[in-house]
Amino acid sequence: MSRHSQEDHTAGQLRVLQSLSRGRLLSRVVRWLTDTHGRGGRSILDSSLDIIAGDRSSVSVTSLVGALMLRGILEMGTRAFGGSLADIRENLSNVLFRRALSSVITGLVDFGPQRPFTPGAPFQVVWNVTRTCNLRCKHCYENAGRRGRDELDTEQALRAIDIMADEGVVFLAFSGGEPTLRPDILTLIRRAADRGMYVAAATNGTTFADRERVRRFKEAGLSFAQISLDGVNAETHDSFRGVPGAFARTIEGIKNCVAEGLFVEIAMTVTHYNLHEVPKAIELAERLGARWFMIYNFVPIGRGAEIADADLTPSEREELLRLLWDRISSKSDPGAMEVLTTAPQLGRVPLEAARDSTLPGCQTGEMIFPTHFSNARLPSQMTRLSEFIGGCGAGRFYLAMEPNGDLYPCVFFPHTPEVRIGNILHDDLHKIWRQSGVLRMLRDKDLLKDHCGSCENRYVCGGCRARAIQYFGDLLAPDPGCKYNAAAWNALRTGEMLAVTGLGIQRTVSH
Ligand code: SF4
Ligand code: SF4
Prior knowledge:
The chain is α/β, with parallel strands linked by helices. Helices cover 43% and strands 12% of the residues. Strand 2, helix 8 and strand 3 form a beta-alpha-beta unit. Residues 345, 348, 451-452, 455, 457-458, 461-463, 478-479, 482, 484-485 line the site of one iron/sulfur cluster (SF4).
């Protein structure tokens, strides 16, 4: 599809979404579906989705009428993106998919058809549930070690989980510190799973060297284990993690999680310390049976600020993205491990590949659009969907929560009052999500500065906002890790940019 016809197509998709959300009759119908509550306090929207999925347990006259209207609306929406109701009906049997779709529909009504799109509630909350940790990682964003004095107690933590579940959060990831060391963690996992959320833990994996422990976590409702591995041998990993023997226990932990049938993601934070080990790390992750291999973009925050010099240059990052793209675009076995990254710039790589047919990945009639959480293969008329899903999800798809319940747009944001958006127990999450000035700013990619602001890829990427704020003290600044922002990177390196802004980290980046 040519670029012009793709743009026409996107405009058509936007028009359909606009008529769905702004057309008076349609918007009234959708508003009625989302605002009216039936049996057990569930919205008519949720019980109508149950009915379309074939689940009749909450059927009533109102929900039947709702299901009828909703079916028409879904047909219109899916057709605009080249799909059909049949495509999504298959997935509707999955409760999590229904929860996510309900959030998409609510977001369409409450926020309109923006590029990128904002759902009715955060899809995912990453909760740094404790500051306790048994390792001393060089790049720890949380500066973890000892338990914090203000951490929520069990009763408060359970209340926080209920608030998130009522609001429609789909994924809850317990992180830290080391979340598995929190004494009541199984109680919290159980409550989150019972309340219908998909439960993940981001762990250093060492405590999972005990297989019986993994079994207990799984029984409590843990579905997903994200395990950090920063090198392919003890020398690299242990020196990065600050404790000898960590590598061996982490590998054991990964094997146990795979053996117990958890969805295992191996996460590698790439810096100058381990860049050269990436290809071998991908091979190792595959051999260990991981389902995802996630390259974490380094953000120099917490203890990471002390090793800011280890950040990749824009050209090193570009080379890494190309290496990942080669791997993603040449994957032939759909069941094989997915390679992903939190660097939002990956979102522009397939679009650039489509513009330049000498690059791999665009010769097959279908295109791949990579995001943090999936490398979906879609027919070319659907690839512009990536502009709605977008790149950086801070404050749009995700929120982060601190051990005391304070909320931030992303775990990599500094803990400053300017970007703290509230507290789960003291403020209203529903209102925060709709009214926070910080979140509104993050959702509008047209506000971005310098090259990020004029970049044709800003809807699919937008740069990592955590890196922008950490380097420049400005939410809207350019992400200096991108090839298009090499001037900003060079200015940081020479100190010019710090002189201009007077903000950012207190040292310049050097090679
Ligand atoms: S300039 Fe900004 S928006 Fe464009 S690709 Fe680079 S980081 Fe992403
Ligand atoms: S700021 Fe955005 S791109 Fe950066 S880590 Fe957070 S969600 Fe990801």
